[in-house]
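[Q] Does anyone have a clean structure-token version of this?
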Amino acid sequence: MTNPRASKPQPPSVTTDAVNLVLPLIKATLEPAAKRAKRPIDSPAGRIVSQVARRDMDTGGADGTVNLIAGLTSTLSFMAPALAQALGHAPETAGAKLAEALRQQDGNPYMVRVLETVQTTGAAEAVAEAMAGENGEVYDLILNLADCIATHAEAYAHVTSTPLDEVWAEIEAGLHD
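[A] Here you go.
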């Protein structure tokens, strides 16, 4: 039997202070409190995003938010194809299939565009549009990305019989290479 992890696409490197919050944000979406929260800000993941947004407001920029999204899209760009490959699907079509499923559920339109273009520079355009819109749109996009990655990580761990902690370690290493 071949090891499905051996041919896993390697993540691109993204290094910034906000990247240190990417994995905690992804994990926070899995906490039971995240599912019970009535408002996103009340969830553990929402508090992390809020912390980054407050830091950005204090500095008068958006670097933290941009870097958090860069870390998330970077992670999704290797998790979606890795899961597709582990399931026996063509890795290059993973984002498009997810986007179609989300579109049918009337999901966040920015998230749909990011999924469709996660392997290209089109994801950056969708993120830029979300950032130019209302603050809630980019906030929702960040939470949707983190939740999507968490779901992929759990599914990948299950399908490949890999402990979830090992998947988290691979994501962390990829973000800090």
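[Q] Thanks! Anything notable?
[A] Residues 86 and 158 are 10 Å apart (CA to CA).
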